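Example record used in the benchmark description.
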Amino acid sequence: MRRIMMIVAVLAAMTGANAQQEDKDMEKMMGIRFEPHEWMELDLDWREYVWSMERNICTPFVDVWRKSVLNINVPTKIFVDSKSLHEVVPAIPVSGYTKTSENRRYKYHGTHHLLKLYISKAGEKEVLYESLAVVEREPEWPADIDRHPIPKPVDPIQEAKEKAKRENAMSIPDEELDKGHTRFRSFCFTFNACDYVSMPLQPGKYEVYCTFRGLESEHKVVEIVFE
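Model output (structure tokens):
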């Protein structure tokens, strides 16, 4: 038994050492590292375009019974290798979770109410960077017929029902949107803010937040540090 326990301990140490080495290798390749450490453990290459709807260890999964929510999480610090700054691909990871009621989706149904990102200097009200809709980029080529089906003719009866639902939702105050027999829909998301705004990495503290379907997330602060 003692021998088995020793073997398990050695394997655990080797696994931890391998994980640390992988983190160092990724940091060396990227010229950038994130804190807390969990952001470095994500199986994502921030040098490439990133969009994930899978829940991960950085996803702020705070669900509230029958209530629309929008939560986000960002690293507290981003360390950048200033010696190789010209080679560093800018990355500010954002992970989040949202749940919205059907009434809210009908009231805020336009594309301008999709997920959007805002970045400002910490403690200042002026928004420095504002994104268009943060959505998964569609592949340019080749066209995927399964993902891009031929649009179906509009059903006038169904369209009339949808219009009636939108008009009804518009008359409901925001604080009442989650009440009644309304259905909820949720999803997680993780993306690189720098894929959606042309923000150079400069030392300082920045405030990051998102909006979606009339909701505004908490404002998170990330500090960029040059080493």
